[in-house]
User: Fold these one by one.
Assistant:
Number 1:
Amino acid sequence: MAPGFGPVTITAKVIRRASGVKLHSVRGRMVAKQSVYVADSTGGIEVAVWSDLIEQVDVGSTYTFSDLTVRRFHVTSVTTTVQTVVMCCDEVLSVNEAPIEEEAASKTMDVDEVLQFRCNSVSSCGSCHKMISEVGENVCFVKCTVCGMRQKVKNLAVKYSCIMNAKMANEVKKLVIHNPVLTDFFDKEGLEFTDNDSIEEYFLVCSKLRITVIENEVTDMCIKGESGPVTGGEPSGSVVALMQSKFCSDLPVTKDM
Ligand SMILES: [Zn+2]
């Protein structure tokens, strides 16, 4: 996580939960995740709740969720982390009951063919989190030019950003795939790649890709028929004023759980 970008704590009432629990592979083990939608008097937000914490939240109750990290695609949402503690507390009296911004036109579609695919990636130092621009091929170690720490290339945090031209329903669309969606997909499908060329080639020959999109942004991907049903159109939370003021631009997104 980038320096100066700390975890957040919110106290809010659970308005509803998403149907179904999804299983995600996180560092080699399967972990359950479920989205809940919470609100206080200022607004609402989606909280991705992981693992044992899912059992701890009931619709209609108010909780304090500590140590959440913030994610941002189209709308801001938060996710629990291993540090998160969920504590029941007194009812929030005036909850804004219509706070949750429904995501505009989220559609789930099958991709007929990926025509072009571009995968860019940046690596960041495990110590100071600054970007490491030059990582040579077939090298085991790299020295951070900012903090001077030498480290194993395999331990660098890699963040991808991809663009694809996908043919769907006789239409070609240019779509953006951000790092969390891509790495989520790799986890779900058990995929590992050593370089960006392999990622690009994987998608070019991938014949069963099913994606959920909002405008030109991919928000979820799976391989048709192998993963569970796509829960497309899950509404996400609107931006709570507090978060909007605190986190205004695109945020660094880390692998959370
Ligand atoms: Zn460094």
Number 2:
Amino acid sequence: MNNILFDDLYSEATNTMEHSFIREILKVTKSVEGIISFAGGLPHPDSFPREKLSELFSEVILSEGSEALQYGASDGDKIFKDIIKNFEEVPYLNDDELMITVGSTNGIYYFTRTLIDPGDIILCEAPSFPGSITSMEACGARLVGIEMDELGMRPDLLEEKLEELTSKNAPVKFIYVIPEFHNPTGRTMDLQRRRDIIKVATKYRLPILEDQPYRELRFSGERVMTLWEIARTEFNDPKLVTIAKSFSKILGPGLRLGFASGPPETINHMVKWAQKVNVSPDCLTQRVTARYIERGYMRSHIKKIIDLYKPKKEAMMDSLEKYMPEGAKWTNPDGGMFIWVTFDESIDTDKLFEKAIKNKVAFIPGAKFYPKGTGKKNEIRLNFSYPDTEMIEEGIKRLAQLL
Ligand SMILES: Cc1ncc(COP(=O)(O)O)c(C=O)c1O
């Protein structure tokens, strides 16, 4: 047999693309028996409504299968879109302002594809979600991180950076933010911070991509308007913000379902990409999720997830308080799945990670969440949604002992 290697034929983009390091880290942590892992970003399996979904999958296949098993529209199932509009309390939204995506990653990718030529710049929070950063980099984007404070991306630094970049005619294309229960820090922008970011974006005529996968998982505090809503209502600017949302954290990431809403022109371009890449989102999953929402199951299910995660978060906060050495600080998220811990600057969390694995506890070193080469060494991300509540104290204790 002649085993021909095609290595010399791969595209430049393929050759420079790396595997997701978080997925690699998760592989390492999974292979250690008895490990307590705060590393993943996984919802707890008890948050998957298995029975209801299995009933609905069967029912939809039997009663609506001729449509739901057929090829579907690239912008998504019309029935599902209408149900989403009602669920999101935006019944006035036009169909061409909304598309269904294969998880929100897919929407973020199409938005990036629509705007980015190789070398173009995206401004994001530093730190930010590596899944998005790497998908944007795969489109040729250069990511520039803007430092955060407790309320998220700092608008003064955003403006300073934009002043610098525009004075050099640098090709800045958009601003990417995760304003609520931010991954990895757990921070949430308050209303004023959201307005301030919008003001800067407006001044520099830059669109905003608002990533909102955790919005429904609020344990405390008041709900804040999305940047998408603020731009439309207070700024009378329906074109400024495109929002990406997801069913991954409220139904199950395996369903691969999300949606994006933005100006019709942008959505239209994103749908053109969808036509080429995946033809349409999964039609069956869309219809099942539509019926799930329509029958009124979603709100009470979200409440169940909150009741599952809130004690986990509290257990983690209590254990951090009890065991962490002086000098360590951590965020207190109002929702979502993550806590961000900052240690004394002398601590190198890449080295800590190696020791932690040997001691059967895992986290993600903070440097992994920054655009290439800009990370800090003394931070870590802890996930509280996946580990069992009883294991959280033991895991934090193990970690603190290593420090
Ligand atoms: C900030 C952020 N955006 C997007 C996603 C991707 O979610 P999806 O499963 O909908 O693609 C995640 C998942 O962890 C996330 O944390």
